[in-house]
Amino acid sequence: MRRSALVLAAILAFGLCAARACDDRVVSFVRQHSTEEVFAAARKVAIQVIKREVIVWPAPLSEMKPIRGYRNSVNLVVVLKEDGEKEFGMYIVLPESSYLPVPDDEWTFTGMGPISIYERKIGHNQRPEGTPAKSPSSDPSQVPGAPHP
Questions:
Q1: How many structural domains compose the chain?
Q2: For 89-139, what is each residue's pLDDT tens digit?
Q3: Is residue 142 part of a domain?
């Protein structure tokens, strides 16, 4: 009981727990890595996306085995799961960003902090403009930033 209470307190401390869901992988990831470490990796990925390069996921983000990533304003979206109608993952608000996302009909966030769990409806199998259908790691011909067919 005491251990469960400590784990719950740690999750709540990171602002990543809600009544409906928590992704243990993301919570564990945030507990293991400093925000500075995650921000440094996220900046590298954001530059690759801007340059339309194939994403080479730096540590520690590579540990999460992302399917793809894209920018939302200055922030980085790291997609960990998708089912054709929704995508799920980490939303990283970079320190240089003045844009804070707002939950709406498209985006749902669990906790709002520098690293949040998000769910996004992509409806009709549409992906955000400029993102590939598959992970570059699974299909090297796909380059982030290439239009989706």
A1: 1
A2: 999 999 999 998 888 889 998 877 899 899 999 864 444 544 544 444 433
A3: no
**DSSP label of 31:** H
Q: Cα separation of 80 and 89, whole Å?
A: 5
Longest dimension (CA), the chain: 52
Do the domain assignments include residue 19? yes
Distance CA 21, CA 39 (A): 24
**CA 40/CA 123 separation, integer angstroms:** 32
Q: Which residues span the domain enclosing 66?
A: 2-121
Q: 56 in a domain, yes or no?
A: yes
Q: Which tens digits make up the pLDDT trace of 16-70?
A: 343 233 477 888 898 899 999 999 999 999 999 999 999 999 999 999 999 999 9
